[in-house]
Write a structure and sequence with these properties.
Blueprint (H helix, E strand, L loop, with lengths): L1 H6 L31 H32 L1
Length: 71
C-alpha cells in the first residue's frame, strides 16, 4: 500500500507532502499552496503594519503645517 500512496503525491514533494522551497521553472502548480496567508488574516496584518507608517506621514505633515503657519 505504500507504493500506491506515493503515486498520489507530486514527485517534488517529500515523504510528509511538503513542497520544495524553490519554484521549478515551467512547472504549473495545480495544488493550492498551504503556506499562503488567508485573506481574513492578511487584511488585519496589512492594517497593523501600515498604521504606524500612516501615523508617521500624518505626523510629519502636521508638523510641517504648524511650522508653515508659525513662520
Amino acid at each position: 500500500m505504500k507504493t500506491i500512496n506515493t503515486l498520489d503525491r507530486s514527485p517534488l514533494e517529500d515523504s510528509r507532502g511538503n513542497a520544495p522551497l524553490f519554484a521549478v521553472a515551467g512547472a504549473p502548480s495545480h495544488r493550492r499552496r498551504r503556506d499562503l496567508l488567508p485573506l481574513r488574516e492578511a487584511i488585519p496584518l496589512w492594517f497593523a503594519m501600515s498604521s504606524p507608517l500612516i501615523g508617521l506621514i500624518i505626523g510629519f505633515l502636521g508638523a510641517w503645517f504648524v511650522t508653515w503657519l508659525t513662520s
